[in-house]
Write a sequence for this structure.
């Protein structure tokens, strides 16, 4: 019983580590190709222009279209949003709720025919012109305005609505990256020769290997190796805090030169953060692979070149053919890729449960 449990823990550990590596690669691609900034643009376009984000399975690797989107471009051209942009060609990957609310209120109020000293009155008058000119977001703003008692109350309600909407956008983003995660998982399974069927046999037959992998699993499940916490330190969370902080500084200063200074400093800081994040994630990947290799688990084609060896293409006993070996290898790689693409949080929870079962005291096998 212990052997089966330790083999299961070892396989879950394998899936967990390669799920983290898959996530890291996906995040590096997203950061450097600015997937999130494109998804944010498309989600803003949906509420302002009435176009669906999910329609046609939008490919985030493509450049943003140049066709006319007046409300979206006007929104991104607003000073409240431009302060978050390094330049016009690089859209922000995060817009604080306060910046969104202030920009929307100001853009709608500008449409009022006769300006007054009361911004809330201007917003109410401008909202009619905004809706008449085809503003898709107008009905939402009208509902929020009807339940607001002051300008500050309206701003708070718009911020709350925006935060709820961004939660849905996060789900859309994850659905758009499912395909890339699966491709990365399959590539890792092939590059590292993660044939689950053969690996399970190897782990089960080698007690020393099982012991080392189980020991590493207990360390990771206990948090002593630090792999799990780093999984959640994503670039955008840090970038969002920086952008919100600089947005406040830019908004509170009236000096144009000072604003330009803050913009340049924000741009340089984000570039440094992206470079540091990339370097840290590459180091984390190397550390995880080194820990896994130190257990003695055969990874890659040099340590386990079964598919390309001459013996692989020969009969492996009575009634077997070479194509059966190849079919089993394909099944093993496919299972590995599918398990890896399920995500590190799932496997981390599973790892903790199996480790707890083992620690609870399964009776040792009789010799």
């Amino acid at each position: 019983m212990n052997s089966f449990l330790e083999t299961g823990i070892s396989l879950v550990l394998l899936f967990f580590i390669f799920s983290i590596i898959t996530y890291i690669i996906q995040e590096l691609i997203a950061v450097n190709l600015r997937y999130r900034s494109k998804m944010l643009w498309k989600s803003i376009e949906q509420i302002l222009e009435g176009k669906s984000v999910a329609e046609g399975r939008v490919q985030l690797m493509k450049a943003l279209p140049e066709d006319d989107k007046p409300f979206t471009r006007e929104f991104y051209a607003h000073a409240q949003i431009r302060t978050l942009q390094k330049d016009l060609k690089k859209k922000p990957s995060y817009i604080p709720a306060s910046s969104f609310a202030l920009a929307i209120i100001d853009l709608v109020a500008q449409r009022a025919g006769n300006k007054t000293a009361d911004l809330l009155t201007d917003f109410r008058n401008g909202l009619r012109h905004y809706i008449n000119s085809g503003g898709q977001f107008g009905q939402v703003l009208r509902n929020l305005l009807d339940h607001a008692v002051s300008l500050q109350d309206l701003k708070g309600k718009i911020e709350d609505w925006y935060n709820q909407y961004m939660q849905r956008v996060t789900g859309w983003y994850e659905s758009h990256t499912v395909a890339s995660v699966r491709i990365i998982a399959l590539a890792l399974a092939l590059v590292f020769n993660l044939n689950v069927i053969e690996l399970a046999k190897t782990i089960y037959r080698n007690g020393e290997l099982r012991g080392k992998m189980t020991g590493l699993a207990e360390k990771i499940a206990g948090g002593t190796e630090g792999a799990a916490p780093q999984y959640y330190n994503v670039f955008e969370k840090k970038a969002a805090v920086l952008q919100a902080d600089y947005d406040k500084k830019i908004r509170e200063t009236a000096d144009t030169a000072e604003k330009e200074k803050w913009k340049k400093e924000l741009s340089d800081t984000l570039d440094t953060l992206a470079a540091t994040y990339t370097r840290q994630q590459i180091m984390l990947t190397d550390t995880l692979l080194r820990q896994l290799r130190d257990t003695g688990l055969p990874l890659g084609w040099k340590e386990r070149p079964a598919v390309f060896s001459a013996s692989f293409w020969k009969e492996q006993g009575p009634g077997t053919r070479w194509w059966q070996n190849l079919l089993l290898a394909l099944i093993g790689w496919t299972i590995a890729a599918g398990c890896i693409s399920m995500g590190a949080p799932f496997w981390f929870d599973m790892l903790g449960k199996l480790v707890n079962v083992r620690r609870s005291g399964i009776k040792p096998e009789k010799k």
